[in-house]
Records
---
Amino acid sequence: MSVGIVQEQLTSAINHALLQVQQQGLLHSQHFPQPSVDFPKREEWGDLSSSVAMVIAKQEQRSPLEVANVIADQLQTSSSLLEKVSVVPPGFLNFTLRSDCWFSVLAEIERMGDRYGYSDIGQGQRVLLEFVSANPTGPLHVGHGRGAALGEVLARVLGAAGYAVDKEFYINDAGRQMKLLADSVYARYLEVHGREVAFPEDGYRGDYIRELARIVTQEKKTSLLILDSEDAKRECGRLARQEILRKLKGDLARFGVEFETWYSETTLFSSGKLQAALSDLQQRDFVFTRDGATWFRSSQFQDAKDRVVCKQDGEYTYLASDIAYHFDKLRRGYDWLINIWGADHHGYVPRMQAAIQAFGYDKDRLRVVLTQMVRLLRDGKKIEMSKRAGEFVTLQDVLDEVGGDAATFFFLMRRADTHLDFDLELAKRQSAENPVYYVQYAHARLASLFRNAEQRGFTVPPVSRAPLSALVQPEEIRLIKQVSGFPGLLEASARSLEPHRLTFYLQELAGLLHVFYYKHRVLPPRLDSFQEKESGGLDPSRELSEPGQEGLSKDVTTARLVLLKHVQTVIRNGLHLLGVSAPEKM
């Protein structure tokens, strides 16, 4: 199911009402739009809301309020779901449902279990998701970490929405940056062997270059000293690339990121795919020669100007490689190409969309998600990115300090296209201030409750046998409404390519749970109320206690256990999609 079951039921009721008023001649349109049903911005407006009347009003050439009243009158008489329907300007329909309507949500969670929220909106479409794609010239930094978290979680969200997703890392291992890497490692290699050499002016100067030179020395000893310098540099570059890629893969695996394919840029040249792509464009008259260079007619596809793909000296540009790479992606039969790039690639997007169109595809076949910079903080103060200062700058350093769970959650706490402040101290804090701890603690708190309930002989029956009519408190209904929105949240995240919505949702759900915790009791109080607290501050003698309340009926206890069991399922499902652990104890 792509949306919550209650929302589906209401949508069906609206469609039925529209058919009835059409048959009665009260509305005259032959075809009505599919009603959208959402949660209103304010709770007092009702349980759900729809703007369908405003859309239909344009077709009917009548005022939205008039159309909304026609629909509302019909729903009041024909739908057993509703307790109240109200019409508010400029034409919204606000619905208050019977409270027992929400209980079907718990039955749906029970039925779907760890797949609750999943849908088939993707219908098996093949998606190629390219992300990270760092130059193999050095370690991954925190910016790469943000792209890695975004890509991995987006792949899971798309998979949950019914898409067939392949993840690919494009290895930029051709061109000037790889030559500079080879020159830099070779210079340090010579230094290891006591040779004085001028270091390349634009070379890579990090300490990792000296480490790479030591690795080359272990592998080749002094054998490169007698080689021609260009041959020696090529060998240094080959070994450095190999070692950097090994570490990249290790860092990403540690972060829970795995790729189906590692695609080397150099293979575009060796396989003839680059020449084949340009030949295809030439046959379509989208490549031409001017001033001794070869150009792509990208200006015909809303790009600002035409672009060089091969220079006068015969050297291919980065754009030529990227065109060939995307040509190969399309030829592999993917329905949808998604690239996650840094924000500095903003101007590059129109060029690639132009290439997609030049090959005969709609430009929307390619979607690009741009990620903004990450600013590291420590207790609110900016960390200067300097290895010499001993501060953390690499993804590995961040993982060492805060762990994978916190890193993933923090990287996804903002939209990808906004700047992100990542406070290392906050990410380690075990308090409600730390968002990931706040959500994980909600799961652990419920796990503690169920352990204690089991020890005291309480069981959680199936939804069909639970006395759910005992759930009448506003905080209980709010929890059910929140978990009912999980399927729609996942669908919206997949369609918009915005997995950060999941972190927002989980924080809100955890917040509703914690409010419930402080206002209500689930298990009746023990006679022996003085007991030690479990680790993590959970007090099993007081589970979810309500101040001043001395006892509970069995029905209320049972119904609340059922409710919270399914709240826990949704928290666990959400954390799983993030790749974040759902601890049983904290």
---
Amino acid sequence: MFRLRILLVYGILLLGMSACRDSRHEDKASRHKNRISPTEQTLEVNEHAAFDFTKLDTIHYYHGEIEDSTFYFKIDKSDKSGIHGRYYRIGKSEYLTPTPFSIVLKKKRYIFSSNGKEIPLKFKISIGKSSISGTFSAFANPVGKMDLAFEQYQEPPFREYKSKRYKEATYSVQKIENVVYGHAQGFWTSYPVKDEKYLKIILKSIGKTSTKKKLDLTLDLYLPDKDTIQKRPLLILLHGGAFYIGDKSVETMTKWCEHFAQTGYVTASINYRMGFRLSKASILQSGYEAIQDAHAAIRYLAAHADEYGIDPDNIFIGGTSAGSITAMAATFMRNNTRPPFVFEQHLDTKCGNLESSGNNEHPSFHIKAVANMWGAVYDLDELNGHAIPVISFHGTEDNIVPYDQGIPFSGSTSLGEKFFDKMYGSKAIHHHLDSLKIRNEFHPIQGVGHSPYQDKQGHPNDCYYFIQNKIQNFFYTELVRTANITPVAKQPGTYQFKQSDVQVLQWRAEGGFITSTEDNQVTVLWRKDAPKRKIIASGTRTNGTAFTCEKRIR
């Protein structure tokens, strides 16, 4: 019986006589034209039989059971005299140790050899398309016949998912104009101009800042048309204009909104309160109210996420000049980190806190990244405690918003010092974020001043498209950021992909056998003799992005 036990362990190696071809190995299999065809056949071997071993399958692994033991096996080599291969017996370990074997014809008998032992065999095997069954016994003991049943091992379906979404313009765009996101007291929310000097505009408009009135706060929304994704990232853009001039329909903003909507974002260009009297207190209040309006726009869109197909946990924001100052403050400033002027000018009581103006919406949301274009912050410490990535662009000769740190409008010293506080520009922001080890990029625009992205007529120039591409790639990295594959505690060979927004997930193991997949987990038995071992996960997320990640196994 001991001899028969040994036979039961090693007899599985006779099961490799299937010619079933896995589609993943079609090219390789086509080179083995002498393999057994996939039609079912029966082979009976005794001491007088002869069999052409070159017909046996050397491509695939098989798995199955003999008595209470489970095995994997593979024939590595076959010739006219016999076969050579290895088998793996499943135990408690996640690593499978190979045992070499051979079956060769010696003096008209088939001899099974492994671990220095030789056993004469006789067997009867039926070969199906992807299965093998039959009986076998030691030639010296024909009474102890054992049944066997094995299936060809096949990995679960796998493909490496890829997507051009958010990287290439794919969609036509549906535009919804003048969506009212709130109401507030102010001077105006739109002041389109072209070539007039800034100071001349202010002097000409002094009469317009005598009395505030109730204003509609509006935005233009751009949606990717006929898009099937239900939860898309939102990009909010704020125009510049020193808190006095500008409009959401300025060409540089509308073209960006259209471009990013064509790639799959929902985009919004917003108007916010502008205008001030010629006093430092009024200018500071105008900036503070703009921040409140940006908050109100974010809250409104997050509250109407289902209506517009927005994912409130994937909000991006950016702006130029004053719009960037506003975007940075809306992202990083909190009520307990507001700059001293808010309290010195009693703006906390005049205007309320950051979230108390515009509308009564208070949904949860998350800002994923910011595009800072020649903007600044009032205090670098505002950036502390918020691991939100920032990409910055700034002309090195900018004398309106400081490139590094200083007083805005430094080109006119008396005007700057009289009406503005010190601010920290893109270079200082970059160095501070580096010190906090927060992901950021800084792109100095050498030798140019303010607003380097447009020509004298206000049309986009080459710098505009350079900035567009850099922002697109920077934001895309955040959109496709995924969790790592990690081992499951106290479950050897089991791994998980802890990503909450996975829509499709497929697994592949190199150097091992996948035994089960459930939810976001996979269990693998690893072959110790594999030259490399790794587990790969690929799929899509609810925002339409594709991912592929891997973990190497020692």
---
Amino acid sequence: MKRWMATLLVAISLCTNAQINTDNVLLMGRSAIAAEDYLTAISLFNRVIEVKPYLYKPYYYRAYAKFSLDDFGGAEADLNKAIDINPYMVELFQLRGICRIRLNDYEGAEKDYTRTLAELRDDRSARYNRAMCRLELKRLDEAEADIDSIMDDAPNFYRVYPLKAQIAFERQDTTAGVKWLTTLTEREPTNTDAWSFLGRYALRKNHYARADSLLSKAIALSPRRHDDLLARALARHGMNRFGAAIDDYTRVVDLVPEHFVAHYNRGLILALVGEDNKALEDFDFVVAREPENTLALYNRALLRRQTGDWRGAAADFTRLIRQYPTFYYGYHARAECRRKMGDIKGAISDETVVARANLDVMFAKHKRRIVKKVRKGSDHSLDSYDQLVDDAMADSTELSFGRLLAKDLFGKVQYRTPSETELPPYALTFRQPSEEKGYRSIGFLPEAARLSSLLRSGTLTLTASAGTGNEDFEPHLTAAKQNNPSAADTLICQAVCRADDYDYGGAQTLLGRALTAASKPQTKALIRLQTGAVCIKSATAMTEMGAEETKTRQALLNLAVKNLKEALADSGDARLYILYNLGCAYMAQGDYAKAIEAFDEVIKTDSRMPEAHYNRGLAKIRLNDKNGARTDLSRAGELGLFGAYSLMRKL
């Protein structure tokens, strides 16, 4: 069976040098926006920009598409280019103002709306949005002047009432603020924000029944606002309505599965009402995402001890003791667990620590130290481990109630469940690449093309293995007698077959033999490139199968790095792909700083490789550089990796 050799990545044509009718393509892009097909719109505007980068319209329309996909940073970058080309179009400043508000750049947004109002003095939405920006910048008198001018022109424009209330709260005039919001509920009973704020205000005053009533009205109007559900759960807990509070936390978790506060608080109440196993599930969730969270560990340790999971409880108390060596209750509790497990020696050791601590206190040699606060999430010390996390009430009197006066268009791709798995390395394959896995770039290597030509010409013949029943992915190669190809070529192609059949160990063996047989530097570079890719894939497969962090996996990744570094010496045309694979290897090792350095080199050479932008964005996320990650993911989405938008929205 004759087959063709190809590189793993398929080509996507963004544009050619051939002439295109830009007016028609722009019209098609605008039609795609109208149909909320923002991904198609972006690809169409990309074509126009590549041919005619001096036009402002494709940048403007692409910015609108990106804004609709929640890519506010990418939209602002496009609008900056459009304004550089044509600084006289007021709609550019209007859209950029909205983007800047979403990016919390209120000073920049205020300037954009001032520029808009210089030409459109009666634009109510621009004046309203500028008032919001000035309020966020604490320029209260200027914000109030904008609001008053709107109320003079439109007394029934009730949208400004929350802003008036917020200004009153900023001036510490709580009575006036509540009055504005109460008036708003009377004149516009469907205003969710007003009911929500009044309910939160009542909760802060510990008026639980009133808070429950007001928040229930807000929730009836907007059932999917999880912050209101969270606040109502706190109110219901204050009224000892534990079942109702648990129901609210469950609704929050249904809406936002990753919500830390809802899981934590629900776990506490479940433990309080005796639902220990369900409570453990919530604390397991919290600890899995925040392994150093003191409160979650403490509560889980107590629950595990209560349910007879002595080994699990001892493990949690051990982790707490490592963080707080003077946490003597932890030693006492662990001693009990160890005795239940039959570890008498360990129990005696813990009890000795507690006894010595008691003696120190008795003779005033050691004063009790304040335990430091939790790293994130709840902000409570171990002394108040059973307190609810009051996240819903944080800075509630400073919340912004304004809604941007712009049509919200949301595409669908950014609401998909994002994948936080890095894209795979470049490799040779006989399989048909799938765009679902993110293969978008052109992967062309002269050495791979030479092997392809040998297959096409019949110099190398690919035949099925006998008795396998799988002719596609378990083939082997035989050498055609008349041309007598090199042993290295045959071994490389055999190794590709093994890797396609997920026999990574066999592929590594064949590649090792091929490296010994190869004589040309470019062939050796290709072999090392493929070896690195196979090692990375093998290590990734171990992780996906649930294997623990093993020496074998680390050895595979070390071998990948070694081969890829050696390949750089003879890289030639393969250098770009070797560097990309090196970045993938560092990502798999968890060395994100080195991964970023490798992807930096790739992008310097070819800024149009979306996989490099995507993986660099993931590495930055893991280093908590969210702004840098957004920039990279925006570029990856612009270049065709549209799954980047769902990940960017999660940020």
---
Amino acid sequence: MSMVDVVTVEVIRCCLEYIAEEMGIALRNAAYSPNIKERMDHSCAIFDKLGRLVAQAEHIPTHLGSMPWGVRNTLKYIEKEGMVLEPGDVIAVNDPHIAGTHLNDVLILKPVFYRGELIAYVVNKAHQVDVGGKVPGSISGDATEIYQEGLIIPPIKIIEKGRFRDDIVKLWLKNVRAPEMIIGDIRAQVAACNLGEKHLLELVEKYGTETLNEVFDHILKHCEELTRAALRRLPDFVTEAEDYMEDVGEEGEAVIKVKVIKRGDEINIDYSGSSPQVSAPVNAPMGVTIAATTFALKTVIAPDLPINDGFYRPVRITAPEGTIVNAKWPAPVGASIETAQRIVDVLYLALSRVLPEKVPAAACGSMNNVLIGGIDPETGRTWAFYETVAGGYGGRYGMDGVDAVHCNMTNTMNTPIEAIERELPVLFTRYEIRPRSGGAGKWRGGMGVIRAFKLLAKRAVLTVVGERVKRSPWGLFGGLPGSPARYYVVRSNGEIEMLRSKESVVLHYGDEIVIETAGGGGYGDPLEREPRAVVTDYLNDLITEEDAEKLYGVVIRDGKLDEKSTEELRRRLRSTTK
């Protein structure tokens, strides 16, 4: 076998990443639902013929981190069932215990053949706005089994030898709300795979299959070496932590425990001691746990490295089957995207005790899922909408948290108000930074968001699935917690109905839903914050004069810093806390 030169390796590696990125652009541009074409709730990647991840776009951590596990499971299923993949075939699957997340995330896989030889797989995963189930949008807060969450699709050929299987498509669309959007998004996912296939074949024509396979092996080995080197630069340690999920059905709350052992160039993450799976949809398939774990690790130990199958090789993850972090069939898993956020939190909390300058305080800790849909009484047309709402990112060593951002496992875009109002019977009334929500600290937590809209239809069902309503995002090293989230409905008669973090309610014309997302935790002693930064926050209406004095020991007079009074107040406050 010839040895490929390093320049060629790097050229092909970059080409693979850009093919994945271009797949994502095509998917977004061709999609119908605002959730994909505006929020970009989709992810694209390329796998070699052995099912190893070789390149991915910068998309959704929950999708991407679960995809290697999901692709391996899908290929095993295909082999077990005796299915034969041929040129022009396309596989669809959303079974979470195979694909790795929840039913809304549909994985589309297309094998790429060159002159009859299998050379790779192009894959994407996109959150489809509805897959049936008990509520519009399909993600409920109270499902007790996966059958209540929608249509379950095992790996199946949705396209066979280049032709859509109309029988499968008709069955699929009969089980979902907003079928016009769903079929548009399905075709967009297929189009993205077709584009990825086209560009991969162009690479093969230029370099040949032997060189391409050699490059695949090289980039995976190189990523493994870089990851192991990054681990070796860290001190060996053992650390552990626990954090909690709230409003989890009959159980009330559930604990996620983690123990991290780093030795040399390997790291072990053990979730033994976490709660057994619960009677609510926050149970995580193993794919979700892998995704959240590798996201947190990569951001801490190797944030600048490209990620592929090589990154996973020094990482060992233990998640006992039948627990909230590795649920068994038929446990409901629709809200496992919230569990993904908590896994990141608990792993960050553990790592903060041994790598304090590399880890932020807790972010808002939720995707703040909002789902709404109904039936037009005149036409009988069903409609459904889904989005996540941004929150505050935690303060970090040397930097404030980010205001109003989709944090950690979300990584989606904002859904423009105009796009929603154009297509759905809702009218937005507020969309703004939530003042006073970021935890005080030397580096303060990011502020959350207030987002509200009124229903213009006669009736609809609203579902919120969130977290951090009862337990605030924690601060680090003296930083204060961020404000907890609040979700509520202002009825058309003015009555206010507070919602739990996971709840479905019926809305009528004129009712207003208000989402107030949590702020991030603060990092470091608030009395050490630069006084002029406190004044800037005040001038930007993020805090009040009272907050400045009470939390930061900063005195503001007529919008300006009173330096003498601030020095005196901080001296007095420090003396009382010793």
